[in-house]
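User: what does the whole thing look like in 3D?
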Amino acid sequence: MSAADHRADLIVIGGGIHGCSAALHAALRGMSVIVLEKDTVGRHASGVNAGGVRRLGRHYAEVPLSQRSMEIWYGIADFLDDDCGFQVAPQIKVAETEEELAQLAARRDELNDMGFTHEVLLDRAEVRAHLPAVADHVVGGLACLDDGFAQPYQTTFAFQRKAESLGVRFHEHTRANAVRKEGGDWLVEADAQRFSAPRLLNAAGAWAGDLAAALNEPAPVEAIAPMMIVTSRLPHFCDAVVGATGRPLSFKQMPNGTVVLGGGRRGRADRATNLSEMTFPELMLTAQTAIDIFPAMRDATIVRSWSGVEGRMPDDIPVIGPSARHDNLYHAFGFSAHGFQLGPGVGEIMGNLIATGATNAPLQPFSIARFSDAPQP
Amino acid sequence: MKSCDIAVIGAGPAGLAAATRAADLGYDTVLLDEQPSPGGQIYRAVETADHARTEVMGADYARGRAIVDAFRASGAAYMDGALVWNISTDRVIDFSRGGASSQLSAKRIIVATGAVERPWPLPGWTLPGVTTAGALQILMKASGIVQEDAVLAGSGPLLWLVAAQLVDAGAPPRAVVETTPRAHYRAALAQLPAALRAPGYLAKGWRMMRKVKRAGVRHFAGAENIAIEGADAASAIRFTAKGASERIEASSIALHQGVVPNQQITRLLRCDHAWDAAQQCFRPVTDEDGQSSVQEVYVAGDGAGIGGALSAALHGEITALAIAARDGRGDPARLKSLRAERARDAAVRPFLETLYAPAPHVTAPADDTIVCRCEEVTAGAIREAVNLGAPGPNQVKSFLRAGMGPCQGRVCGPVVSAIIAERRGETPGATGYYRIRPPLKPIPLSELAQFTIPDAPEDR
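Assistant: Here's the predicted 3D structure for the full assembly of 837 residues, as structure tokens:
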């Protein structure tokens, strides 16, 4: 048995926003932390998502986490010494029919019953007060008026730098090849180096399933590549981040006038090569939807597109919390294309949980155990 | 979806020769090109140029006519005005033509997208009135528009060619401001004997320079510290030469620092690229026949490394013959003789590359100079991002938006890599380059909304 080259209180595998945020929060609680990243920090979903800081429309189980995260977002500039490009803006899901509006109203009622009032229903006139350029057929919407958006790479990079300033050591281009328990510690072999720590966090995104499986705790992570397209600069016409109810769309005009379009259409993701590829025919409906909801988009020009590899769970909610099989192993992955807003809050929860062994956050719905009970293929 | 054996992209000499030979060999060949007529940049509008314009452009330009004629007579399908904006890794080409986008599936692709002018960011280069020598020449070829009173600044054979063509067109440039460092002349001397083996090039170059000087055009050598003045548009160019400060009033200034391979499609297709220290540029890694690191993707002509128009036409035909040879067809004897001819033609290259290598100040702009003109990102901001820890061009892009504008990094890419490499103390090859994402050029959203594929699965 040879000694490890690097030791710490905690090893985080994965340098995305969740890995960086958890590392930072653990360091704030006095832990020494090593982050292992097989590429570069923010290379995949964390650096190349659409940047929505959105509570609107979340799975009910995620709402408390999202609320806590939002409080951190409001103070993000002071917290990270970088504004992350964060701006408060309404997030609005428009209803194109009365049936859709009724669905949105039912959701609002359900949230109110749970004690949450951050999502509000907008009628025909109110939706136009926020979206003067919206198409005539839109009948209303559901909104979080003080959600927002940020710059994804800038944010992830800011988490990394703040963590580094507190002593967190980042090893980029360092792929965790093998993980095992040795003398009570986790030993991680990464290329030619050995890292050890009493605690281990799996925040490896689309690659997290491999790590979980190697530790005998399989979780069905699918690699997906959500696609986004960006237009040339247009005259300012929209302050809100806009989605649709009956069909996939994410629509946002940036401060510089470009419009970012996304909303769930997927390209090809290849975990083996780390690459993703756009499939444009899939985006035909995204383009049509954007033009239907904002007729001004008829004259827009697409200048850019991108996609990033992301991990998705079958039930579209992440795995967050302690391992069900091993002591001192933790998971935070599979955010299913909506983890960016959760990054600050879930990192705080994980930092607390790992440092103290306990949390009062309602993590039960996110337990990895929900997959171990399911029949394995 | 339509399909073909070989899709050739680009109708310059390499693409035309490749498509002509491929069709002759019996391959179902489609050539897609963005321009309305064949010829590429070098032979642009050669079919429609009248006698007077052909005289001005010279014999080298007129030579393109035969290449175009041979292509027209071949059985290759020609898609003019076809803007290729994406190619998938399984070789499905998305292209826009006549206001609609469609797809073509190709068993093999020959990328013949040629060269682009090396970007040269300097103070004032984004002002209206500042253009490139290549752009001035395109105006002459395509529209017969001759720029009067231009100042040509920079280095390279094209700088002198355009100056000579302006003289012949009756509009001699106001000045030629050459940045070629004195030391390069001494270094190039060693390459001179080899260069003389390539027929004609040096004599031609000397005649061009003599013509320009005899026309009374002012010439400054070894210029440094170049800056363009102007509030809303260019009004003068400033520089130092032979220890003296110079200033020339001009509203039209054409910059040039040689040409480099156009990497957009080969990067999109994930071909391996290497840093070519001699040519001071990235180029796709290929064998001598143009086979890239990606199966069934070939690169012909200047896109595989700068060799000039004659070499490009030879290379296009070589690539087609090499594909045929792989299929057990073709003409091995001709393939061999074309390779030898191309090697002879290349003898002048080490001389030109040594003489016209960009001066150090060209690839390392000052901190306050804008490098990414689309997003207005300065060289200093890029250096600061590297200091913060951004390890490469893609992180700089994500952090500063450099390369995110309408040109998709075509213009700033080489400079951004060079600046990061210098700051990190490594070669640009180690630094790498932007990941190139589609669309390669802007396309209307409404066109994407109409993008229908006959056999696409129904959307759920």
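In plain terms: The mean pLDDT of chain A is 94. Chain A touches chain B at residues 40, 42, 47-48, 152-154, 157, 160-161, 164, 172, 229-232, 275, 277-281, 283-285, 287-288, 290-291, 297-306 (CB under 8 Å).
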